[in-house]
Every structure is written in structure tokens, then in C-alpha cells.
Amino acid sequence: MAASPDLLALQAAAIQFDDAGTSRSLVAARVDGWGMSSHAVVRLARPRSVAGVQAVFELAATHGWTVGLRGAGRSYGDAALNEAGIVLDFCDFATVQWWEPTTGHIVVDPGVTIGQVWQHVVGDGWWPPVVSGTMFPTVAGAAAMNIHGKNNYKAGPIGDWIERFRLVTPVGEIVDCSRDDNADLFHAAISGFGMLGVMVDIELRLKPVGSGRVEVEPAWAPNLAAMFERFEAYIGDPATAADYCVGWIDAFGSGRSLGRGQIHAAWALSADQDPEGRVLLDAAAQALPDRLFGLIPKVWMWRLIKPFSTPLGMRAINLAKVLASRFGPKGRYRQSHAGFHFLLDYVPDWKRIYEPGGLIQFQSFVPKETALATFERLLRMQQERGLVNWLSVIKRHRPDSFLLTHALDGWSLAQDFAITDRNRVAVWQLCQDMAAIVVDAGGRFYPAKDSTLSPAHWRASHGDERLDAFVALKARVDPDARMQTNLSRRLFRSGTAD
Ligand SMILES: Cc1cc2nc3c(=O)[nH]c(=O)nc-3n(C[C@H](O)[C@H](O)[C@H](O)COP(=O)(O)OP(=O)(O)OC[C@H]3O[C@@H](n4cnc5c(N)ncnc54)[C@H](O)[C@@H]3O)c2cc1C
To answer: Whose CA is nearest to atom 52 of ligand 1?
Structure first.
């Protein structure tokens, strides 16, 4: 990791820029990847307008600084970090500009979050068609990573629902991008992790919902093969296919229980199917409860779980979940959209159980023909090395048309690894070795979750043709390679190409 420049030296360089008539400052700041295992000291700028973004690009060109972008900083690793360069943070540039409830189209500033979107539209009977497991990412950050939801196999990634946006390039141009205008930039900026310009005025198509709830069916799978089979049974027949499907895996299960876990399949409900669910078409009614059992403030919960944040403690927690899944209540139940989708927001600050070293996620996407054997190998490898991940989630995906997309016709396995001073080197090595297996299986990786990938594995996973096409586009819109992040320098070595 690059050594941090002296924070004070950066502060001394504090400098003003004009933001549509108001003067704003660059400030020195330390920013973290969401997983808390990577950090950077940066010059932070928080523009409120396109003019402010352009002014920062000008400033960067004058001083020879690089510029990285940051939405809500929900990428696990180094995607929104830019050591010693400028970080453009969009938290103050976050207005819903336009909403049309008759068509379900919304236009937002880059800092508007997925949470803001659903809160804005749910009362009119709409919901974002693709959401992540947390509601805090911005729409622009989600577009830049082309995020997927628990319905990727059916709805595609968020890019499939974006109608258009304007791209502010590092040379100050504003380019309209859609499937008709500058389609090459449209398909590359979505999935291009902020390397081509700043997306603004993003128009997103939403989906109508007749009820504020979904119907959920939990199912137990005694091992990974059974998990794959049951999953396919839920999603295989278009007439009955679940609208959402996600699997949790106990990575400590071994032998015949390797890959055991629980599936949650869910179906959208029409107004006729769920007349009582209408009252939940209301932002306040969707809000996640802030107390457990109505008593314990959930802000305390991570502290209650913290004593279990050891390999032994996590083995016990995973086992408790196995027992609850196998022997707990069966049958379908109804759950609010927010409750079903944003499970990871239930326990505020849960990532703090990983302090002080933080966590990294290794999420790989493997074609359906090779996925089962590949994921079994990954799980066995970490068990053999005594580096079992603490949380594993499995999803089904489909290919899409975005240049650097991570999705393919196959499966993904997301695995959270705790990082400590003692295990850091070994976990990094494990990730290299797992990446080699994934590449051999024809798989891909996800920059939003990545912290460890090498340029060789990154290139091999996409192939020369795709990466070279991306590099050529970048050279066209960003000839000085102004836009860089720690992630881009890691994946492309120089931040641009080779
Ligand atoms: C608990 C948790 C659960 C998650 N679950 C999922 C999931 O289910 N599915 C999934 O796909 N992802 C998931 N993610 C990952 C998350 O959705 C992505 O990392 C997303 O990109 C975060 O958005 P952000 O606004 O925080 O962007 P940041 O993390 O701040 O930045 C992400 C990228 O967007 C770029 N960017 C930011 N703003 C702009 C802009 N205006 N124009 C162009 N580029 C820009 C940045 O350069 C950076 O490369 C999860 C993350 C967390 C923490």
C-alpha cells in the first residue's frame, strides 16, 4: 500500500474553487474504504453543481493532481480512494430533480442514494428495480459499478434500468449518454467505476409495486449441490419463477455439509393478492425498526455481537443460524420491501465487529457450468488454511451489455474475511490463489467488493479485447489520465492502461 503523505502538508495546500458562484475549499482528509481495511489521505472536494465539478477538474489540471470519485463510500475496498489526489465527494450534490409518477421515471443528482429514491417514490406505488443489500449507496455509485440485486437473473443489473445521464469529462465537456447517444460511453461508464467522467442528471426507470410487501419462502439446503438445485427450482420456470432469490452459506460446514445454508426466495405481490399490504406503500411504514424486540436499541447490537468476532465465535454464530434454518419456523411469510432488501442495514454499524483490522470481501462470478465445483474448491481451500470466511452469500446472475460488467450466466459467491495484523498476508495470498481458480473457471470479479485482485487476474477475467476497448475510450475522454483511484492504479498498474 502507498505510504500516506503527511496530512499537514496536504492541509497547507488547502485551496478554493468556485462552485456556481459560491467559494468552496479542498480540505485534507483521511477517507476509508467501507471495509475499513484500506484508507487514503486525500484532498476532498464537495461540489454542489456541475460548475463546481468542472472547476475542480480545472484545478486538478493546473496542479497536476489526479481525481477520484466517491458516492457514499460503500465500496468495500479502494474504489473510492485516491491517495494524495483529489476525491470528489457528492454528498452535497444530492437532489431528486424530477419525478414522474405516471411513468415511473426519476432524474437524480449524483449524490442521491437508493434510500432517497425509494422513500421518494414508494407512496406512489413504485420501487427501484435493482437495489443492493444496503440502501446507502448513491445512484451514481451504483451505476458506476453496475450493481446487481437479489433479482439479477431476472431483472439484470441497474444499468438495464438507466435511461440516460450526462457525463462531465475531465476536460470539462458535458456528454449526453444513452442507448442512442454516445452508446459506447453509456455502456462503458456504467460498469467503468468512475474512470470516464462524472455521471450527473441520471434518469432511472422504476418498477410499479401493488403492495408494500413481498412474499418470502425460506428453504434449507444441506450442501452446495442441494443449494444450486433448489435455487434453480425457484427460478428455472419463467411462469412461477421467484422475483428474488438469495442464499446464505455456512462456510464452516465441511464434508457432506460443505456449502450448507438457507435460501430465501421471494415474490412480488399484486394489490389483489395483498390488499393489506397497501398501507405499507408509505415511506414511514417501510422504515426499518430501530429497536430489537421493541426494546433493545439496535445501535447497541454490534457491541453485543463483538465478543463473538473470533473464528470460534463466528463458527458458533453460523451454527446457530444453521440450526434456526433447519429447525425453525417453516412456510411463507410476508415482509416489507425495505425489510427484505436491506437486511444488511438491520444492525447499524455491524461492520465495527471487524475493528480494528476491518474486513475485505472476495466476490467471484463463475459460469454456471463450472460454478459448483469452483465454489466447493474455494470453500475447501480456506478451511484447509484455517482462514474460513465469516459470511457467505450466493446469487444467480445473467449476462448484460455493459463493457466491464461483472455479471455472466452463472453464480456469484460473496465471502467476508476478517483482517487482522496477523492474518493479513495469508488472507491476501488466499485471495490470489482463489482468484487463479476463478480465472481458470472462466470467472470474473467485482471492483465494488475487491481489495486484492492483481492486474493479471483482472485482465484475464475480462480478456484483452474488452479491456483494450475500455482503455481506448478512456484515452479519448481522459487523455491526461486525470481520473484515477487506488483501485484503478492497482488493476491497471499505471491507472490508465498497461
Ligand atoms: C453492506 C453492503 C452491501 C452491498 N450489497 C451489494 C449488493 O447486493 N449488490 C451489489 O452490486 N453491490 C453491493 N454493495 C456494493 C455497493 O453497492 C457498491 O460498492 C456501490 O458502488 C456503492 O455506491 P457508493 O455510492 O457508495 O459509491 P462509492 O463506493 O463511493 O464509489 C463507487 C464507484 O463509483 C464511482 N462513482 C461515484 N460517483 C460517481 C459519479 N457521479 N459518476 C461516475 N462514477 C462515480 C467511484 O469512482 C467508485 O469507483 C454492497 C455494499 C455494502 C457496504
So the answer is: 74
